[in-house]
Design brief:
The complex is a heterotrimer of chains A (288), B (333) and C (269). Chain A has 288 residues and is an alpha/beta fold. Chain A has 2 domains: 21-150, Rossmann fold (3-Layer(aba) Sandwich), CATH 3.40.50.1980; 161-282, 3-Layer(aba) Sandwich (Rossmann fold), CATH 3.40.50.1980. Chain A has helices at residues 2-22, 38-46, 80-85, 98-106, 119-132, 136-157, 187-194, 213-219, 249-252, 271-282; strands at residues 33-35, 53-56, 70-71, 90-94, 111-114, 164-170, 179-182, 198-199, 208-211, 223-228, 256-260. In chain A, the strands form 2 sheets. In chain A, strands 6, 7, 8, 9, 10 and 11 form a 6-stranded mixed β-sheet that branches. A 5-stranded parallel β-sheet of chain A has the order 3-2-1-4-5, with helices on both faces. In chain A, strand 6 (164-170) and strand 7 form a beta hairpin. In chain A, helix 5 (119-132) runs antiparallel to helix 6 (136-157) and helix 6 runs parallel beside helix 10. Chain A is globular and about 65 Å long. Chain B has 333 residues and is mainly alpha-helical. Helix content of chain B is 73%, strand content 0%. Chain B has 14 helices and no strands. With 269 residues, chain C is α/β, with parallel strands linked by helices. Chain C has helices at residues 45-52, 75-81, 97-102, 117-129, 145-157, 175-192, 203-209, 227-230, 233-240; strands spanning 5-16, 19-30, 34-38, 60-65, 68-69, 82-85, 163-167, 195-200, 212-217, 220-226, 242-248, 255-262. In chain C, the strands form 3 sheets. Chain C has a 6-stranded mixed β-sheet with strand order 6-7-8-3-9-10, with helices on both faces. A 4-stranded antiparallel β-sheet of chain C has the order 2-1-4-5, covered by helices on one side. In chain C, helix 5 packs parallel to helix 6. The longest helix of chain C has 18 residues, at 175-192. Chain C starts with a strand and ends in a 7-residue tail after the last strand. The chains are: A alpha/beta (288), B mainly alpha (333), C alpha/beta (269). Chain A binds chain B through residues 59, 75-77, 169-170, 172-178, 201, 204, 206, 209-210, 212-215, 217-218, 220, 231-233, 236-238, 240-241, 244-248, 252, and chain B through 29-31, 45-49, 51-53, 56-58, 107, 110-121, 172, 175-177, 181, 184-185, 189, 191-194, 303, 308-310.
């Protein structure tokens, strides 16, 4: 019965490889996963691993199902005791949380290391995560979908003139104080480029830059996009504050857009939707 | 030279210096602008980028710097006389801690103010400062003896510690972006981009300066001792009250406008005293003008040194203030 | 008939409720007098001095100047009639000697008035009277103890008062400076008819300087009168709990009080 033996050997080898990739003490398919990173939590649920998630971070709000899981803290204040009490067999932590990592190692709990970076890293993280939790196919499918959506957006806006854009992610309500915009690196910048815009701060090699009104006028963006998480006062954020600097082309031509939503700032699975939304306002009519 | 003439010279000289700095500062910045275009009335304002940079971005900022700098420096002088200690600052008695707590809450709770061009942060900040003043004043008021300066100092220091702890707690509860914004506020920011917060800060500061106008002679006497001031006819209790309340009001308004910019309230009075002597009739006006010039100059550095990046103005004043005190220490040894 | 001079009528005072520092104290200081308030530390001397100078308000009783209750007089008027010299002056700021002296002119200036050449001359005159004019441009903080005290007295003189009140004027001074201050005060009293009230615990200063004494014992006036009669062993024993020997110095004719032994101890033979 050689025909039956072959698939058995293949499954066995794959499992062995997965085991080796996973590291010491690792489960091939972890059943009790804790994630303190919002985007990783989203990725887990999006891959169908939701039932295996037992603990989430304090700021993890999507999908709604995640809210039913036990909260164990976040970047600054991970609750060690609570994490351990959940008896996890995999914990996703930030690469920079050296204290937490040491404690997890001491407790012999396997960790998945996460690092914030550019747009392309989101899909590679999804693939890695998928392999790590024994959902290689789901991970790869999810990543593939995201890549395809973004590629689709790129195709639709190809050849169109790319507007100079100021991408704002923070501002004191009703004023032009405390404006924080995306600098020339980071995933927000990547999002903007993918959506068909040119960052007015491409030359500034930082993730964020505090934009004074003088700077905003000097850089003269054609479009201003304000993004942010959904907070109750977001509707109060008065765009009329920009009228004071009417010399900016974006203000003059009334091309200031508010993109709200929890997923906008999260480098997670919904990123392709965010890119699409951004492309919609940068190139009206090109999408859909 | 007699005091009358010295006062006139002081007002003229320091006033001119402050005016000069305030006239030159809006001409400097990270972007080069054409002065002819700025004042060219044929171009509609809404299209005139140079004019907007000058009148919307730079001018309010320079005026805010002048207002905040003069308020903090003058308050520093008054409090130093009240507490008979040249190391006292406008922040010693807890006013800025109250202002900071108010600002933190507004930033963390993302409060809207409902008025365009007006953030809720300065309003909450001013309310916080008034709260702190009320607490310290209430604690320091002895039944019969007016204001005990010892208790004032203790109450202020205690309030500073307590409010700092509360501020840390609020920061801990807020999410990452909010924490960053609160930390940034603590470093000082004069980029008001609008005349509204300026105009709102003028009444309390003007009121305080009105009080400051009658204080100098009494402060000379009071700075020696309560007894020696009383024996020369000074109403010690009333003067202490006036000094404390007016200095705190000016500080609260200044911090609400530009954040708690440090070192102005202590570096400027020190420098001024080295130049004009100890008579408060000279020190107070000279410090007010000197504070304005100093802060506007620091703010100009803040927005040009690492352009397009902004160095928070509180960092600039600290970088200058720290070595200054080191130099003073070495010089006095 | 209005009495000329400063008078306290049964004044009581407490800094904290329930702990009276002075109880029903009465004192009379005639115009041109040279009076000492004598008593051990904590007897209420400084408090009585402050009440007399109008710096404190009595809880009971009243203080009158030429018959008028001090509380009915404005601060400025009181400041032009009486000046106070505290025990020690420590400056937080670098005032010059002439600035310190000129500050004495403030009670005579209007709300926004600035001192004029006349005021400056009066200040200089005051410095001259205490022998400190040559120090006028110096910083007060750089002076010796004796010089500082003399400058502070000059500042008080610049107020052109009728009455000068001094709190322990020689307590922190070296011997030479003590002599100096004593001689300045005697001269001021003699030449300018300045009424001088001094509070002190130093028996010998009281003996050498004052013509009259008020003995203060734990907040109450024990006795008052000419120095000769006040420096009486029985009174001093009550006040200080010390047996003393009172002699007259052969060279200066000055009365000297020598402490011999504590009360209830007899000297060893």
């Amino acid at each position: 019965m050689a025909a039956h033996k072959k698939p058995l050997i293949i499954h066995f080898s794959l499992a062995l490889v997965a085991l080796m990739l996973a590291g010491p003490g690792a489960q091939a398919r972890p059943q009790r996963i804790v994630s303190i990173i919002p985007s990783v939590t989203e990725m887990l649920f999006a891959m169908g691993a939701g039932p295996r998630v037992v603990g989430v971070g304090t700021f993890d709000r999507y999908p709604p199902e995640a809210l039913t899981r036990t909260k164990v803290g976040g970047l600054i204040d991970p609750d060690m005791e609570r994490i351990i009490s959940l008896k996890p067999d995999l914990v996703a932590v930030y690469e920079t949380q050296t204290d937490l990592r040491t404690q997890m190692n001491r407790a012999k709990i396997p960790v998945f290391l996460y690092r914030h970076s550019g747009l392309s890293d989101i899909t590679s993280t999804i693939r890695e995560l998928g392999a790590r939790i024994g959902s290689v196919k789901e991970g790869s499918d999810l990543a593939g979908r995201i890549d395809a959506e973004i590629a689709d957006v790129r195709k639709r806006i190809a050849g169109r003139p790319r507007p100079r854009t100021l991408l704002v992610f923070g501002r004191d309500a009703e004023t032009l104080r405390g404006i924080y915009a995306s600098g020339g690196i980071g995933f927000l910048h990547d999002m903007l480029e993918a959506a068909g815009g040119v960052n007015v701060f491409t030359d500034v090699k930082r993730q964020s830059i505090q934009t004074t009104s003088e700077l905003a006028i000097a850089r003269a963006p054609d479009v201003i996009v304000e993004i942010g998480a959904d907070t109750s006062s977001s509707s109060g954020r008065n765009l009329r504050a920009w009228d004071a600097v009417g010399a900016i082309p974006a203000v003059r031509n009334k091309r200031i857009y508010l993109l709200r939503g929890d997923g906008m700032m999260n480098p997670g699975p919904r990123i392709s939707q965010s890119v699409r939304r951004m492309a919609e306002v940068l190139h009206p009519g090109a999408i859909k | 030279m007699r005091i009358g003439r010295r006062m006139a010279v002081t007002w003229l000289l320091f006033g001119a210096a402050a005016a000069l700095v305030c006239l030159v500062a809006p001409l400097m910045g990270s972007t080069s602008i054409n002065l002819w275009r700025v004042f060219d009335s044929s171009i509609p304002f809404a299209d005139n980028a140079d004019a907007q940079i000058f009148f919307v971005a730079r001018l309010p900022r320079v005026l805010a710097g002048a207002l905040v700098g003069s308020a903090l420096a003058a308050s520093g002088v008054v409090l130093q006389a009240l507490l008979r200690n040249p190391l006292a600052t406008p922040f010693t008695l807890g006013v800025s801690a109250g202002a900071a707590l108010g600002a933190m809450l507004a930033l963390t709770l993302d409060m809207p103010s409902g008025i365009v061009g007006f953030s809720a942060v300065p309003i909450a900040s001013f309310a916080g400062s008034l709260g702190a003043v009320a607490i310290v004043y209430g604690l320091a008021r002895a039944r019969r003896s007016g204001l005990s300066t010892n208790v004032l100092l203790l109450a202020g220091v205690t309030l500073n510690s307590f409010f700092s702890a509360l501020i840390l707690f609020v920061q801990f509860l807020s999410d990452f972006t909010q924490t960053f914004r609160t930390v940034r506020w603590l470093m000082g920011d004069l980029d008001v981009s609008s005349y509204a917060p300026l105009l709102a800060a003028v009444p309390p500061i003007a009121l305080s300066f009105g009080a400051f106008a009658v204080l100098p002679r009494r402060m000379n006497l009071l700075s020696i001792s309560d007894e020696s001031a009383a024996s020369r006819g000074v109403d010690v209790h009333r003067t202490q009250r006036l000094a404390f309340l007016s200095a705190s009001l000016a500080t609260g308004a200044a911090v609400s406008l530009g954040g708690p910019v440090g070192f102005i309230g202590i570096v400027v009075p020190h420098l001024i005293r080295l130049i004009v002597g100890a008579d408060h009739r000279l020190v107070l006006p000279a410090s007010a003008f000197g504070g304005a010039a100093f802060l506007v100059a620091c703010d100009t550095v803040s927005r040009t040194a690492l352009a397009p990046l902004e160095v928070p103005v509180g960092v600039v004043t600290a970088i200058i203030g720290g070595p200054f005190f080191l130099w003073l220490l070495i010089r006095n040894r | 008939m209005t009495e000329k001079g400063l008078a306290a009528d049964g004044v009581s005072f407490a800094y904290t409720v329930g702990q009276p520092v002075l109880s029903s104290a009465s004192a009379r200081i005639a115009r041109g007098g040279l009076v000492g308030i004598l008593g051990p530390n904590g007897s209420g001397k400084t408090t009585l001095l402050r009440l007399l100078g109008g710096l404190l308000s009595p809880a009971a009783g009243r203080v009158t100047l030429d018959g008028t209750d001090l509380r009915t007089l404005s601060r400025a008027i009181v400041a032009r009639r009486m000046a106070m010299v505290p025990q020690e002056t420590q400056l937080a700021f670098e005032y010059t000697v002439i600035e310190m002296a000129v500050m004495g002119r403030y009670p005579h200036l209007g709300a926004f008035e600035i001192e004029g050449p006349e005021d400056l001359e009066i200040a200089r005159d005051a410095l001259r009277a205490t022998g400190t004019l040559h120090l006028e441009s110096r910083l007060f903080n750089t002076l010796s103890g004796g010089e500082k005290q003399r400058v502070v007295i000059a500042g008080a003189l610049a107020q052109r008062p009728d009455i000068l009140l001094l709190d322990e004027p020689t307590a922190s001074l070296d011997l030479a400076y003590q002599l100096e201050i004593r001689s300045i005060l005697r001269t001021l009293n003699a030449e300018r008819q300045l009424t001088i009230v001094v509070s002190t615990h130093d028996l010998n200063l009281a003996a050498s300087l004052c013509r009259e004494l008020i003995l203060l014992d734990r907040g109450r006036v024990l006795a008052a009168g000419p120095t000769q009669s006040m420096l009486e062993p029985a009174l001093i024993r009550t006040l200080y709990g010390v047996d003393v020997d009172i002699t007259t110095n052969a060279r200066t004719g000055q009365v000297i009080v020598v402490p011999v032994a504590r009360e209830a101890e007899s000297p060893q033979p």
